[in-house]
């Protein structure tokens, strides 16, 4: 009973029911797909239970699909309510599951699985995408017509901060019910507010009581609605809220840059910024590293024909080494040497750059680079504009000092100027490209703190699909030299 109670608290009876229905539909799709075999241009009826190994493989595949659905938030109410997002996430989850089966097939080299495997896999893939979408859309229509189900699907939320932002947040939820939120209460450290209410929502107590209320009220999401708070306090508060196990969302002008610069890629309702904890995920620990090794190696080999001429041009057009090698700060503050094609004249004065960075960091200025920098060689300007000077960092990626995607590595004297909250960007490996590079690279409207917020958003929300989005958006930035100098 205790185990069942923990399961119900974590997933709720509604989510368990949806998982069960998903599994039933997936099994039906597998049964239909395995009922046909394709051979030499002809399709034959088959018995799905004739080959036990094949049937068990698809049974296991359905379990993988359910796990993929969970990973892609298909049991989150906000996704269930959004037909378009739900369809996209279902396609992603099914694609991952199909890739898993292909890998299993390759490892086991099973003739039973492989027999008519491509035809049956394609049938399973297409059938279940259609069937899962259809049954979920029909379910949503039934829910929209039923007040009982509407109440059942409401996400229970609690807000941290009962000030002006919190009041506007409560009014917005009550005005527009499509958000699907049931605001259960506020928490605020002002003792005079306890016992009062905002727009009918009670102020329950202080922020340190969050664990108690999340448990007692079965809270699904926590919204931080405090405006007059420093960056450091806000980030620490976000970390504290993550410990509750509920979904954490920031409603603060400190995070406006997320919506402004990458809203189309990481958009969320209520102008809030979601914070997740994926740093220790399987993707971060294993898959991302495998992708970095394979990606960096493939790029180094494919780009080698043009890198050799570039190296010669750098060497012949100005005195000095081909590569610029400097110490930078990586994951957890560890120091490593990174590589770039040299774009400046040799033995130039570094104080100019130090003073420029100090001005940007201490006064939170925009992240523009030094204009008309006479230290840069003519060929260096071209290399910088199209980010060609950074290609040698593929060596760092291959070695494990860096990743293809991540926050920008910083110089030692830059790191020393950063405050504690800004240094949180070093929780993950630095990258060759990232959210800052594709959205705020050398832009006059991006402050230093904004660039840090972009990095911290990535740290909290890193995933395979976010990395793929960033890599794809990096291509036009590099090709058209957008923001480079």
SSE topology:
Elements: H1 2-34, E1 36-39, E2 42-45, H2 52-71, H3 77-80, H4 83-108, H5 111-114, H6 117-144, H7 147-153, E3 155-160, H8 164-175, E4 181-187, E5 197-198, E6 201-205, H9 210-216, E7 221-224, H10 231-242, E8 247-250, H11 256-266, E9 273-275, H12 282-317, E10 323-329, E11 335-341, H13 351-362, H14 378-385, H15 394-399, E12 403-405, E13 410-411, H16 412-417, E14 431-433, H17 435-439, H18 448-461, H19 464-479
Parallel strand pairs: 3-4, 3-7, 4-6, 7-8, 12-14
Antiparallel strand pairs: 1-2, 5-6, 8-9, 10-11, 10-13
Structural account:
The structure is a single chain. The protein is α/β, with parallel strands linked by helices and 485 residues long. It has 3 domains: 2-148, no CATH class; 154-275, Rossmann fold (3-Layer(aba) Sandwich); 282-479, no CATH class. The protein is 55% helix and 13% strand. It has 19 helices and 14 strands. Strand 10 (323-329) and strand 11 (335-341) form a beta hairpin. The chain is flat, with a radius of gyration of 26 Å.
For this entry, give a set of tags:
485 residues; alpha/beta; Rossmann fold; 3 domains; 13% strand; flat
Briefly say what this structure is.
With 485 residues, the protein is of the alpha/beta class. The chain has helices at residues 2-34, 52-71, 77-80, 83-108, 111-114, 117-144, 147-153, 164-175, 210-216, 231-242, 256-266, 282-317, 351-362, 378-385, 394-399, 412-417, 435-439, 448-461, 464-479, and strands spanning 36-39, 42-45, 155-160, 181-187, 197-198, 201-205, 221-224, 247-250, 273-275, 323-329, 335-341, 403-405, 410-411, 431-433.
